[in-house]
Amino acid sequence: MAAGFSTASAKGVDFEAKITPIVIISSIIAATGGLMFGYEVGVSGGVTAMPEFLKKFFPVVYGRVEVGADKNNYYCKYDKQGLQIFTSSLYLAGLTATFFASYTTRTLGRRPTMLIAGVFYIIGVVLNAAAQDLAMLITGRILLGCGVGFANQAVPLFLSEIAPTRIRGGLNTLFQLNVTIGILFANLVNYGTAKIKGEWGWRLSLGLAGIPALLLTVGALLVTDTPNSLVERGRLNEGKAVLRQIRGTVNVEPEFADLLEASSLAKEVKHPFRNLLQRRNRPHVALQIFQQCTGINAIMFYAPVLFSTLGFGSDASLYSAVLTGAVNVPSTLVSIYLVDKVGRRVLLLEAGLQMFFSQLVIAIVLGIKVTDHSNNLSKGFAVLVVVMICTYVAAFAWSWGPLGWLIPSEVFPLETRSAGQSVTVCVNLLFTFIIAQAFLLMLCHFKFGIFIFFSSWVLVMTLFVMFLLPETKNIPIEEMRERVWKKHWFWTRFMVMGDQSCNRQEE
């Protein structure tokens, strides 16, 4: 199963490494943290479209949808702040929790942080499935958010640090693959439970989130921590032993020396979050801003609601949501296969054009149909909308989906890696929260124009990648600054100025 290869470092020394079973198995286990995130992204939209759930917690929305209120403004029938808080409270809790997760990731390690994530998530699942009132429901969502915040902090770091350089992109993308599997699993569950009479349908949908939580919790007990984390915490002998184990060779001295050097620099940084404000770290912080501006989570959160709003029947809307989830998974496999072959930039540029075109077509079709005041799309237009949404989802799945997590996890130096990942997760969840909270209101007021809004952001993102994002393929994780940022035509000025500032402080 092990295949040998070596990776050349910037210092002219080879890092020997094999694709060992322990790396593959540990990566698969850790990546189950993405299942939790994906399941929550997928389940909320389906549950909020279930009449019994709306009747119990959001009777005003239930009246609009079931009784027939607001017939003349079908884009606004789900516009209720309480309903949006149900979805977005998880992400608000997650972005808060990630700062605590930064501390545990740095001081306790990546593995214990994943264990904490699983425990938070399990408690949240129990409260959600047994919820008797809105307060209990939101409390459960907040605890789920804490689990997501801790998992999203630890898992991408774990995957990037344990992986050999040449397959780091593919292994890190396992996190996003599990996110897409979680979304698909949630959509399938919602499709089945929507047919169950009474409250058992939505309770089962929310309760089955316990499956990915148990997988991560048990998995965290089985894997070992990364050499980078062990060395960072002063456990040098154990870190070296683990490095030999995961690389499948005793000749790990060059890579271990890099870890020691990075650890030495990390110990000099007393305030990692303050260190992020230095000029040389600002480009890294800027990378995560765009992922949520694609509008992907707006579609994934509310896919059943969105399709219902566009004129599909309730069963058809859930079926369409399942279809988009089914497109998501194989498209992420495309990224796993190509990310270490063609690089990060090629995938982002191609997908940017594809997403822009898809959203523009959807806006034009819906704009034409809405002007004739028809509450339902014809079969041909409905199929076209679903095809374009699937085209858009596929492009996101092999680009901004996995690479939005991969690139930040591999570009931060060790001294600010935990803090940097916290900022990454925080920015991601902050924009997720904002869009989740605002989407139904935007849908109500923008109508079909919401797709023009997101396509404009996609165009801006694509230009950013074209001119400002360097390639990180096949670069050792501890040498990004020297080999990537300092050689980039624009960001090099930040690196040089940052180094000069550090030298002045030392003097």
TrEMBL record:
Transmembrane segments: 19-39, 82-101, 113-131, 137-159, 171-189, 201-223, 289-312, 318-339, 346-368, 380-401, 422-442, 448-469
UniProt subcellular location: Membrane
PANTHER family hit by this protein: IP12678P (PTHR23500:SF357), SOLUTE CARRIER FAMILY 2, FACILITATED GLUCOSE TRANSPORTER (PTHR23500)
Superkingdom of origin: Eukaryota
Major facilitator superfamily (MFS) profile domain segment(s): 26-473
Main subcellular localisation: membrane
Keyword set includes Flavoprotein: no
Membrane topology note: Multi-pass membrane protein
Name this polypeptide is given: Major facilitator superfamily (MFS) profile domain-containing protein
InterPro entries recorded: MFS_dom, MFS_STP/MST-like_plant, MFS_sugar_transport-like, MFS_trans_sf, STP/PLT_plant, Sugar/inositol_transpt, Sugar_transporter_CS
Cellular compartments per GO CC: membrane
Family listed: Belongs to the major facilitator superfamily. Sugar transporter (TC 2.A.1.1) family.
KW Disulfide bond (keyword) present: no
Example of a GO MF term: symporter activity
Keywords linked to the UniProt accession: Membrane, Sugar transport, Symport, Transmembrane, Transmembrane helix, Transport
